[in-house]
Input
Amino acid sequence: MQPTASATHVVNKTSSKRGGPSLGRIATHLILSFASLIILLPVLWTMRTSFGSPDLAYRPGDFWFSPTADNYRKIFGELKFQNYLWNSLWIAVATAVASLAIGSLASYSIARFRTGGTPLSLAILGTQMLPPVTLVIPLYLLVRQRLDVLGIEISLLDKGWTLVVVYLSFNLPFVVWILIGFFQSIPPEIEEAAKVDGASPFQSFWQIVLPVSLPGLLAAGVFAFVLSWNEFLFALILTGRESRTMPVALSSLMTSQGNQVGAICAATVAMMLPIVVLTWVIQRFLVRGLTFGAVK
Output
């Protein structure tokens, strides 16, 4: 039995598609490769310079050089950058955890019980309309005052937990708005089923809603962490040598006598590594949470 003309046309068309990539696909890959290079080349140049000699930064055409760890010995041995790295780490983690603890309760209340209605939601978003630089002077005037607690004067300047409180002021609105959408996407029927089984509203929230919304919590937590990790302006004004964070310490390498380019690149790589590791770990949990299938 001979194949029809239409069947032969379909077979030829399919075989031609399998024969090689189309022109559109090749163009798409070229554009994506070019865009990736634009993003990756500054990072690769920074890594290259961090392992080079001090004058390598002024020789961008040299691709072959003898790697050295002198820049890393300088920032971690002489300048004690590990202390600033630790300050940035615990401040960012504390801010992310506090933002999730407070923001999850607030966003769940708004999503399920319409707490405050539309005015409250707009007010939360409206707190971000002012640029951060307008808040630096008022916050500094507040922080510079000493608190008298049971006859003991407590200074708020140069304290890491002061930065945590300040960072909460601009992290919480974003976290609340991110989580409201996740909580609204969860069917309320699963909470009603939990109530029928005797669960209290808080048990329903803790044991049912939070596990289901794990991807949203992780996304909001990563956002709050990165926002606190990279913050520079408030850390510059409100910290001293004891609570200095990594962005402020990195800027101290740029002086009127010259920029220590190799040390700056080494500090930049050290500052990027925790974010890369965090993204890799969180990505695994995000995929796991999305494919868990809690809602069927």
Observations:
- The domain at 79-290 is CATH 1.10.3720.10 (MetI-like fold).
- Residues 50 and 265 are 5 Å apart (CA to CA).
- The radius of gyration is 26 Å.
- The chain is about 70% helix and 5% strand.
